[in-house]
Amino acid sequence: MKATLTMTSRGVVTLPRKLRQALGLKADDQLIAETTPQGLLLRPAVTLPIEQYSEKRIREFDQAETELDKVLRREKRSAR
């Protein structure tokens, strides 16, 4: 699919609805702009959420790992 786009004086480019729909793009999606020998390439950016763990959450992880270790040790002993 091809489309002719117009850039405003502020550098804003609007992608036509049919193009956005064909690519599955929606409001606030991020795109990567890259120069290539053929011109400008726009492609969707893959973003992954990052969780910042609180001290409480870290303690929960530590406790779960300790409990798992106990279970695994019991299973190992009973398999002997």
Q: What is the topology, as strand order, of the major beta sheet?
A: 1-2
Topology-level CATH name of the largest domain: Pemi-like Protein 1, Chain: D
Q: List unreliable stretches of 5+ residues.
A: none
Counting helices, strands and paired strands, the structural category is alpha+beta
Secondary-structure element sequence? HEEH
Number of helical segments with 4 or more residues: 2
CATH architecture of the largest domain: Ribbon
Biggest sheet descriptor: 2 strands, antiparallel
Task: Tell me the domain tally.
Answer: 2
Tell me, what's the shape?
elongated
Strand residues, percent: 15-25%
Rg estimate, integer Å: 25 Å
The average pLDDT score comes to: 92
Taking the alpha carbons of the first and last residues, their distance comes to 65 Å
- Which range best describes the helical content: under 10%, 10-25%, 25-40%, 40-55%, 55-70% or over 70%? 25-40%
Q: Quaternary arrangement of the chains shown?
A: single chain
Supply the CATH class of the largest domain.
Answer: Mainly Beta
Count the beta strands: 2
